[in-house]
Amino acid sequence: MFSPKSTATEVAKALATQIRGKTVLITGVSPGSLGSATAMAIASQQPQRLLLGSRTMKNIHSVIDDIHSVYPSTVVEPILMDLSSQKSVRAAAADVNSRISKLDVLINNAGIMAVPDRTLSEDGIEIQFATNHLGHFLFTNLILKKLQAAAKDAKKEGDTRVINLSSNGHRISPVRFSDWNFENKAVPPEEQADEEAYKSRGQTLEWSNGYEKLVAYGQSKTASILFSLYLRNKLTTSFLAIMTNLIRHMNLAKLQASTKNAPAGGNAPALKSLDQGAATSIFAAFDPSLNGYLPIFPAESSIYLEDCHNGIAEAYASDPDLAAKLWKLNWQGMQDFIGELGSGAEQPQPADQTYIPDSLTRHFHLPSSHSSPVFSCPAYAASLLPGTKDTQNILSSPSQQTRCSLCSLRSPLMSFASLPFELRSRIWSLAVVPRHITKVRTKKSDGSFSKKQRQKGKDILYETTSTPPPALMHVCHESRQQAPYQRAFTAGTEPRWTWVNFELDIFCVSNLYALADIVSHRSEAQRLQIRTDDHPDWYESATRYNGLSTLSKMESLREIQVVLEPGDLMWGDVFADYGFGCCPEDNITFLDEGSGLVLTGSQLKMVGDWRIVFSFDSEGNPPDPDRLSDEIDYALDDFWHMTLAQMHELN
Fold this sequence. Notes:
The chain is 34% helix and 17% strand. By secondary structure, the chain is of the alpha/beta class.
């Protein structure tokens, strides 16, 4: 639909529906810049509000005047901010937070280029790194709640977006973690610019006392991409889309010729006009085709956009480990300044997701005493408090609803998973849900049965799906990078195992007998879900089969969920008389399968006392049965067969 020659004005016109009514903030807006071209294009399609940031009010008002000369009804507001100054960034963020309730799109556009001599910001940070990356990093985190508020109310997932502008200049250099501030320290080869590539084109980098202007610029632009990558992983369950625009519009032909993609002989690609250079920013900010898309390989993904299409960034700009490393480096770079500001400058947390209802929770089901753990039934989970009902028990796999109707229940103790929603969803789709079996190898029959019986009794030893193995391996690698998983439940003649996070994962067993299936990891399991049987003496009988003994040896248990079959109200007495091993009593909850009620052990014990309360009058004498209501009379006669929901209604 769009090409490298498309203009921002053309793209905005095509995406008018997506722009109309949005609140948009753009940094780095000055006359004759990409920021002003971006603002002008958005203003043409009736946004609700435009906030423009710049170092001087003169620059902003000049752009505002230009906009109002063409689109006089557009609401445009100035934000004074110097991205090289952390003090100025904090003041600007406070200004924004006081003005708006939510922000639909943030375009981190500001940047400086190829500063000739090493210059430090007022915070002691190399000026290009401070302005192009660190200022945007801090500002984005400080206004993050406004973006999350917009994402919560958005009509579609991914409508709320953060756009970080990078450029092909990122190909000049990776982030120099060993000497990011250009203090003439030793830098390992993997962090160095590829100077041989420059020499092969008859060019050289001009170093002076450990500083090179293009390398400093390239580092800052690589940092912008890594920032996008890390932020996207952290905020994916917030429905926020994080994009990077690899702009081609450059003010320095020498910079273009210096990139690795420049043709031999130093012939630089043709420069774009400002309107063309801003087109990809508009595309990244508003195109609906980018909603909800998670690529398998980060290097070829919608997080990197170039010429209004997916682009390919350098490998060092696509590494999630380097993105996490940069996140830590950012706070180290601001440590002195943070210390000066004191308690008001705490690190903003990118995963502030307390309102989000759909973080996936993993459950391991052990349906019988000799089965292997099964990764089963990820669910859109609702946070439940004792005494409330589950109103959002929606499974992402409808076929599993009958088998596991309570998988989406969460206790207050459950924290949001470290593994991003999209990554869990991708693992589920690639590794768990069978797509297409392309090969099945079965055991050979001894011929003692009929053909029909032999067909029915085949044991599948091996099967593959149409999922490309490299894609699956990549996703599994990503999952282990995002959370502390380890191998567990190794079994069989050919070793098989499951990746487990013992801190987050819930182990589901059909009854106490099945605890034998996790005995090898009893010292590590922390969260357990037990389903009841339909016999009143279920728990007591389990003691004869060492069920309670196994439970008492699980010294790391910090949470137990007991799923009650309808009528299993004797668990109130069980809770008081037997206990649940080492698990703290406050972290033991009872989930009524019929009603969705969640009760603590103490609350369930009160249900057991209910019969006593209604069995005697205020003077301690048995009441006249003729005066009891039909419901209470029924309850006294058939107490054990009532559900918690029925008890709740009577009470």
